[in-house]
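Tutorial, part two.
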Amino acid sequence: MKKIISLIFTMTLAFTGQAQMSMQEQDSLNLRKLFDMSLLNGQSYEWLDHLSNQIGGRLSGSVNAQRAVEYTKAELETLGLDKVWLQPVMVPKWTRGVQEYAYVQPSQGPTTTVNITALGGSVATPETGLRGKVIEVQGIEDLARYGKEQIEGKIVFYNRPMRPDLIHTFEAYGGCVDQRYAGAKEAAKYGAKGVIVRSLSHKIDDNPHTGSMSYGELPNEKRIPAAAISTKDAEYLSSLLKLDPEMDFYYKMNCRNYDDVQSYNVIGEITGSEFPEEIIVVGGHLDSWDLGDGSHDDGAGVVQSMEVLRLFKESGLRPKRTIRVVLFMNEENGLRGGNKYAEVAREKNENHIFALESDAGGFTPRGFSFDASDAQFKKIQSWEPLFKPYLIHYFEQGGSGADIGPLKGGNIVLAGLRPDSQRYFDHHHAATDTFDAVNKRELELGAATMASLVYLVDKYGFEKIQQKDEILK
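Running the prediction step on this input gives:
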């Protein structure tokens, strides 16, 4: 009898091992299918071509943003999804006006023009422009060292660069983005008449990089104009100040803020065949800045997310869970789309189990970062070998994406696609963020990588994590 039981046990183990191998092999084959379809018959690059070259920059609240809404909705409808709809959201509207102009005036010698661009949300300079002495600081915390006595009536020049020794460029960006976002608000407290901010880029060139800024609760009459200066001209201005502290800086901007206007998140979904109430989100943000055409930030993420659903439809993979693409509006200067989506999801008591965002450019995919529990991340790590044939090795805990961030809570796992970021900030928020800067193959690899992760999450799901209050009961 013992021999029979032992034989049955051995056969069971062998059968289980074969089944596991067969599942791994099947997963490997399905990932290969997704990669092949994206690389051989992908649609993402064609979609991006239209967004970038036929529509262009998609500033929140603009005509181009609305054109992008209409275009992507129509394209999703051609995929034969189970549902496509628009989700209304009120967004800020800001316009740049005619091109900015600036020059430096030494105490002696000719003027030299420099390259600047208004920061998104800034007030304009007076009609005749703004002229003043300059004080250079290395960050917001530096203001207190100089005090109101030295700052009042001057133009504050924030010149803290992105650290070149940090391999993770987003970490370098995070280390100095506060001077762009809150620099005007803080300098105004010391009586500054304007601010100039070094562009956030490792590259030394003539292209200024815009981006969002905020005055917080500062009254309108105390708000001062804020502009970014190119890295090359920031170096020049800093050098000139050392030689000639009494030099003048002049700039003229015609930007303007308006009342909020209505826009939309664009949403489409494939309904799950077994667990339709469990929702997987994949998305990017549809709006962009206006200097370039927003190909990397975030046209790439938009078309890659659309491609995920197309790959599922074209491959015949019928998901168990509902897979939803969300093209968020107004990530750049307000995050209204992401907040609205999460608000409606809570109102409807929707069960989101996973959300994946692509908002780091269309470069070669390296992997993902995850906002997940240790148990959830351990399960995700078990899928890592399936990605290694595609040179996808980066699976790390920590961070996901801005637009999906408001969904955080409960059992949901959040993830961000992590492409190679070394060249991302060469283009980020600048006139160089254009279609020609995106490599077709890299874009398609990113789409397939996202689809592969969504496939695995859909197939295996995540066990519900028991909350502390449930345990106490």
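The radius of gyration is 25 Å. In part three we will examine how such features are distributed along the chain.
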